[in-house]
Amino acid sequence: MMTAMMKPLSRVLWLGCVLVFCFQVLVPCGLPGACGLDNGLAMTPTMGWLHWERFMCNVNCQEEPDSCISEKLFLQIAEIMASDGWKDVGYEYICIDDCWMAPERDSKGRLQADPKRFPGGIRRLANYVHSKGLKLGIYADVGNKTCAGFPGSFGYYDIDAQTFADWGVDLLKFDGCYCDSIQHLAEGYKQMSLALNRTGRSIVYSCEWPLYMWPIFKPNYTEIREYCNHWRNFADIYDSWQSIRNTLDWTSSNQKIIVPVAGPGGWNDPDMLVIGNFGLSRDQQITQMALWAIMAAPLLMSNDLRHISPEAKALLQDKDVIAINQDRLGRQGYRLRKGEGICLPSIHASSNQHMIPLLVP
């Protein structure tokens, strides 16, 4: 299937750079995807934008109004995604991460947005995002508090799921901080999955369940896939090549466990694309984009789309690379072999024969 599609110059150049700069060779897994969460969502990897790596938990809107976590930021990102080609190539979700909440729940026990930073509330923000033909994601936590210390969902799973549905939320990123036991962690992820389904609204469910299980014992990925649309396995990505290398090393070291469970409806999530920020060279940005595409990973950018270079924009919007990521067969690539200090020749459009045999099972 890859052979038939390996026609344009752009795809050969991008994927060729994987061989030149990355020390790894990936091939599509020959195993079909397992059956997953039956909500009909994420049949191809989720594409969109997430605020965390670039904007973190900046709540100081008085001194930094253009980079704090606020309604203003998400309205501006929605406008750009709709008007500047991002939606057209498949980036659909605008995702709010931690630090959007008020410090306390309301009088009825519901989560609420910080009233100063989100004066219109999440419902109005969702309406605006939807009016642009996009979808809104939001963040919550399975434990007593979020990782940044805002109210967690423990004991409130049904209330929070219904609140998100009432607001018009389309994706939930569910973190795993401040949970007092592995049993509560696992049960909480299951309960929120069921609670989301009971709302009757289509909400993609992004879990961090295995990330918090690995330090204690190997997660049951068959079970995780029954409840989640995609799941984080390893530490947060940061804007550095070493961070990306660490993620790739972990992924390839555990590929026999994680690759067979990935497929339509359920995906391994190596975390955000940091292309367009400050920490990666041009070659390293190309490498991240190519490998995330081959790994059938969610493509969730974390950058400032208001101030992105033409080169980074062209890379993130490359339709041929995106087509590999969005292949409906949904087979995740895996590392075939690894070599240290290998110097490979540059690969040009005329040298397809050097790489196609490595990509076709």
UniProtKB/TrEMBL annotation:
Q: Where is the signal peptide?
A: 1-36
Record carries keyword Disulfide bond:
yes
Pfam families the record matches: Melibiase_2 (PF16499)
Entry-linked CDD domains: GH27
Q: Which UniProt keywords apply?
A: Disulfide bond, Glycosidase, Hydrolase, Signal
Matching entries from Gene3D superfamilies are given as: Aldolase class I
In terms of domain of life, where is this protein from?
Eukaryota
Q: Which residues form a coiled coil?
A: none
**Which chain regions cross the lipid bilayer?**
none
Q: EC no.? A: 3.2.1.-
Task: Work out whether the entry's keyword set contains Disulfide bond.
Answer: yes
- Similarity-based family: Belongs to the glycosyl hydrolase 27 family.
Under the subunit heading, UniProt states: Homodimer.
State the protein's name. Answer: Alpha-galactosidase
Source organism of the structure: Odocoileus virginianus
